[in-house]
Amino acid sequence: MIKHKLALIALGANLPSAIASASETLRMAACILHEKRDTTISACSRFWKTPAVPAESGPDFINGAIILRTILNPHELLTRLHEIESQFGRDRSTGRWSSRVLDLDLIGYENLLLPDPETHLQWVQLSPKRQLIDTPDTLILPHPRLQDRGFVLAPLAEIAPDWIHPATGRSIAEMLAALPRSALAGMRPFEIQETPVLP
What we know:
The chain is of the alpha+beta class. Helices cover 29% and strands 19% of the residues. Strands 1, 2, 3, 4, 5 and 6 form a six-stranded antiparallel beta sheet that branches.
């Protein structure tokens, strides 16, 4: 019997796609993942509004997170996420941290530390200046910026507070509690009537 693995996925968008608003695009992308035979959503967070960084560089982002059960390995899953982004018109040539119609980030996969502890640590310790320039040529897991991003940790804390980072031993809840208040500045949940229902 094939065993399903647990993956943490962060969702984000701050531009409408060709067919839907940012929030609706996130909902539709999640539905695509849920309906595939090899991926199933087992939990989803609320959606959050998050200011773009740097300030006034674009519209507010809509962010969320899902727990995915999958038989895909991490590289196959990342390919699937990129395929879905492309379906909605994601343009990866616009640079990192730019406005976008859809961002599906593989944040964690079970307790895997990829590609190895030393390389992972190098990417975690990368300077902010180099973060704007350097792109890894291999999959880094958990996501090297996980512990720094309120817009990832706040949604994840709603659905996976006890997930443990394999390199640091800290839970999602602990990482969120350790963030400076500035990392959560301006973040707010969607109004209840605005929040789409995910599978």
